[in-house]
Amino acid sequence: MQRVYILLCLIAIFIFIGCDPKGQPDTSTAGKLRVVTTIGMITDIVKNVGGERVEVTGLMGPGVDPHLYKASAGDVQRLTSAQLIFYNGLHLESKMGDILAKMSGDTKTVAVTDAVDRSLLLMPPEFEGQYDPHLWFDVTLWMEAVGSVRDTLSEVDSDNTLMYYTNAERYLAKLAELHTYVKAQVEHVPAEQRVLITAHDAFNYFGKAYGFEVRGLQGISTATEAGIADVQKLATFIAERRIPAIFVESSVSSRSLEAVRAAVNSKGFEVKIGGELFSDAMGNEGTPEGTYIGMVRHNIDTIVTALIGKKSASSMMGH
């Protein structure tokens, strides 16, 4: 009986510590790494690179503005139970800054933009000496974020390094194709018509990478609303340049852009809403726009179609 008792105690101990020979608790779920991400674009990277080895939870879904997002009690619980946290950084998740900083003491927390050479980042004067955080609109820069996720997963789970590198190479090849696709679509738009106007300046990296002049009504952050003077200034620019279309964003209220449209029309020029772009959030899960590649393709197709006319754009794009 004593031997049976000792055996049962040993079994109980092994179950409690997760059968780890080092005596460390098993912190994975069904053998998977528990990863929490902020924006959908990062979630998409982790899914592609981590594959079956990760259980990823994205905090910010479709239509969510990361500039204004505040972590809920449930979010804090998810963050504290994670083994890895990936976020964008560069003050994109500004309302979550304190929480993410506290998490870094107990959980490995990585800003994916830290992997990008600072000389490649934009620092618009209106953003008070801070970098523009919307790197994902230059596909080549976002490829650097993929490398950051790959290297971190490999460091934490070195037994599966080969798998992470293989998955990353496969995904990076798709992103290289995406970059080529965007450049090809841009060529359909005459150089003088390459002007992109949206609710806020999320597309500066897109403009630099693909040759567009970009104007946003609210600046880089959505935290402050545009005033009447801002609306009138942008309306005058649109009317003088005879820009055919402006674009609303899925994560930003369309009210301010509708005001711009009305102001332009009052100046004797008609501008249309060219469609909805995904800026700080992707589309619904299960749709093409619910992936980073699908989101970027949707955006460039929408922009080109609106700026050169639906009929000609559709024929050029083979739709």
Oligomer: single chain
Mean pLDDT: 85
- For the biggest β-sheet, the strand order reads 2-1-3-4
Tell me the Rg in angstroms: 23 Å
Q: Which bin fits the share of residues in helices?
A: 40-55%
Tell me the total number of β-strands.
8
In this structure, how is the largest beta sheet organized?
Answer: 4 strands, parallel
Series of secondary-structure elements, N-terminal to C-terminal? HEHEHEHEHHEHEHEHEHH
The SS-based structural class is alpha/beta
Shape descriptor reads globular
Number of helices: 11
Report the span from N to C terminus.
77 Å
Weakly predicted, low-confidence segments: 1-28, 220-224, 311-315
Please indicate the percent range of residues in DSSP E strands (runs of 2 or more): 5-15%
